[in-house]
């Protein structure tokens, strides 16, 4: 969906007056260009969108901080949290200097171009600094989730051949002590909390600046930038080999497409507080995009509610990255607060008004409706200070946009947030596509879909429904040291995602499930579990849901409880706290969950519906091996650990 922006584009209006998004003067603003659509037997099978910017022909990510310093040396690009809780701004020139000094330090320690350096830390300024400094030194960065087990970490370090590892804490480094004998390539182990990053920068003093210039000069778009290991829902993680060109194709087109987020200069400068893990490609891609676009970037290492709320209030971002689980929690928490105050009815009416507003605005942008009428505008104005503003304040008070990915977001929730004053750009992508492969087009959103292909991307639906991708951001291949390096991943130029989806008549993509997760019942009915699981997960009393029924006579589900929601439910019903194993057998709670299952079943046919479910006394967690670090279900591990409960639902 190419959108071109003229230099005379008007300043977008304050979102408080247009809460569901920005409208531009068609005579001076962006121009919407429909995607190219190809059909087969009457069905849309392929959608393509030309790039908004030409592919880079030289240079790399390593050049970005230095280009910023040359163009806008005094513009603040990063804000760093200090020990006293305040935010210290860094200009483009200051950030480039810190990148240069650390790159020289890595060089002084003997790291040579092409060496792999692993980073195991929560989201922090040091993470982004290490990324750009490593690139400036010609190195390849290897993210490791800070929650990874010792075995997982050892595997990634062995497979990547990392010569250096940077951990956040001394405890992480100590845990690897017994494994060092199995890591002959690992020569350096540095710890952020011990000040090793600052010490590295000091060591680089004798190295001439020109050494880094030379190392940067030999990098190009095809040079390997990073090895990002997949979370491994179905097996051992694989290293996705992403190049500098992959990242630049991704972020350059995303910046241009999401002009309101990254480039529109209004009364408030664009900014974001990054709290999703930089070990995941989603957060990393946005961090790179912010540095590339000189958007003020902050980092929040803690995901604890109290810490994050305080960080958001202090930083006050204009946009955020989010996953559906987070948006569901914010919504459910707001409703629970209203219910405790005896205002549940008012909240529900406000939510209905917000959804109507979001849907009416969508219809106007789609050209199928006039937009919100006078009555709806009045109702929204009434509820804004009572409900919507409080939700915006929980996210810092200035958030106008939410970039959402990771799993499908319900249409109702997307419409609600649009009506509450925060436009959602939902996207779909993989590690293998360097982040987003599709995204909601700002000028023509369609709620409940993941949008059109990112400019420069093609999406095809195979005969079996699998989504295939092609574009400049699609990976070169997978890392395989036994095969001598990178093994190509695409077939005839198309990368098979393993996801199932469909394209509508206007080219919008909807994700319906994972190819390997499609259930085939004993009666031969194909069942996609994801829609049922995603719908039930939005219920305030449900944390996770696993739908099963492969080669079984009917479909069942394992449900875990959301403890915050359960505590609220007990309090509102005058019930004392009880242990989870007792709650799992509670008849009244079972009846509430049965109504939720009945509602979910309305989306599907009778053979696809959930006939029986079991409430588990424990939640699925990453620690127990039931979730990946990106919150995806490890289906086989869950089925193995809860086999007794599964068999009981089938009379075993």
TrEMBL record:
Residues 1-33 are annotated as: Disordered. InterPro entries: AMP-binding_CS, AMP-dep_synth/lig_dom, ANL_N_sf. Residues 67-479 form the AMP-dependent synthetase/ligase domain. Keywords: Fatty acid metabolism, Ligase, Lipid metabolism. The keyword Phosphoprotein does not apply. It holds the Pfam family AMP-binding_C_3. Belongs to the ATP-dependent AMP-binding enzyme family. PANTHER family: AMP-DEPENDENT SYNTHETASE_LIGASE DOMAIN-CONTAINING PROTEIN, LONG-CHAIN-FATTY-ACID--COA LIGASE. This is Acyl-CoA synthetase. It comes from Streptomyces broussonetiae.
